[in-house]
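Hey, weird one. I pasted the Cochlin sequence into the form twice and got a warning about non-standard characters only the second time. First submission, copied straight from the form history:
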Amino acid sequence: STAITCFTRGLDLRKETEEVLCPANCPLWQFYVFGDGVYASLSSVCGAAIHRGVITNAGGPVKVQTLPGQESYPAVNANGIQSQVLTRWASSFSVTRRSTKNVALEAVGRSVSTARPSTGKRPKKPLDKKAGNKDCKADIAFLVDGSYNIGQRRFNLQKNFVGKVAVMLGIGTEGPHIGVVQASEHPKIEFYLKNFTSAKEVLFAIKELGFRGGNSNTGKALKHTAQKFFSLENGARKGIPKIIVVFLDGWPSDDIEEAGIVAREFGVNVFIVSVAKPTTEELGMVQDIGFVDKAVCRNNGFFSYNMPSWFGTTKYVKPLVQKLCSHEQMLCSKTCYNSVNIAFLVDGSSSVGDSNFRLVLEFISNVAKAFEISDIGSKIATVQFTYDQRTEFGFTDYTTKEKVLSAIRSIRYMSGGTATGDAISFTTRNVFGPVKDGPNKNFLVILTDGQSYDDVRGPAAAAQKAGITVFSVGVAWAPLDDLKDMASEPRDSHTFFTREFTGLEQMIPDIIRGICKDFLDSKQ
């Protein structure tokens, strides 16, 4: 049987039925499991096995059977693991016990450490050298310190350390890819993710790095790397965590907080490895003592790493590699663009008129276009209302951007009265109800051009209580009091108004920015 890690997913296994060995002491709260009994192939195999009661947290043998995809996977809490809802996934698996005859023998050769990159200890399965460590898929930029702070001698020790980390990660075509950026006065991208796919080449490139010197403008370098380094043409891969590991000797010469915000907006996980932290007598020279906490992905201890000096750093290599390979911990890979559900509630009353209704649909399309829509990404829904409500499409009806945009284009104008309150209640119940336990954050954008015949305050408060953030967009005769009553707090930044339907276009960037701001605030 194959020894796997805590994070190996069903889709990482190649055979129809496979016997695997789960390690002991996997951290339960890190497991991503979708379904119950039949699990989406996105799920962690060992997580599913514990959830199913096939093994305990002491690990052990599991038989994994590949199954066809399902329309939906339920969320069930079992054995300390809360599985999550997922709609439609291409393949599934089930887990069962297997006979424990030859297990004891195999378990002896098993490594104790959990998210450790595989070093080829798999029985009868030589590690494919070119593919690299498939259990550690990540795109990593090492941001090395090339400032006068560190100096030439310690710069060389830093290169040694980065080289050791690179080798242990198990770089390869299907494993981690890495690149290096040097921070000094001005950032310099030394090599990109796409330039090398073997440890040997990367080691050579690291050895060749020349020390630049200058101020340690880490903030400037971090911002530059977050914005420019991870483009598809530079070799970043879709759906794989983006990570920047910042090495910092002492402290930065510039402000690093804004760069941290930019990195989070771009879905990049920032780690800071601080070496020789400022001593008491140096503190007077440090602009901002809390610089580490402000730049890392989350201030939860996981993303900061401290080494007392550059001498004798070998023992720090493995724990850092384990962090970088903990896929489930990369909390910043979720961004407002790929982790939200947005429903548009559209006024189809007679006062709108056909040509203005087209402008409303154009507005919705342009907001939706900004998001990464997919079965595991963001989702869009639309409801049209008069006195009645009509769900034009729900969150799970279309899972690609093209299909969503074409569904919006084909919405037909209803024409009738205006009962906005009823429509909000209808949407909360029927559109958001099915996704309320899902991982995405929920947003409702209400568009109306007039006074509602019913109460809007009660239904809007109920929607907000159900975890939905409400933006209200009013046109022409929509009363400002109603708009503010519907909007989430702070009301001013969630309420928009324009005299003419043509004014909707100018609001698009502000709505998108508002959604992203709320998303980031909810994560802090």
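That's the output from the first submission. The warning seems to come from a hidden character in my clipboard, not from the data itself. The chain has three domains: 2-97, 139-329, 340-522.
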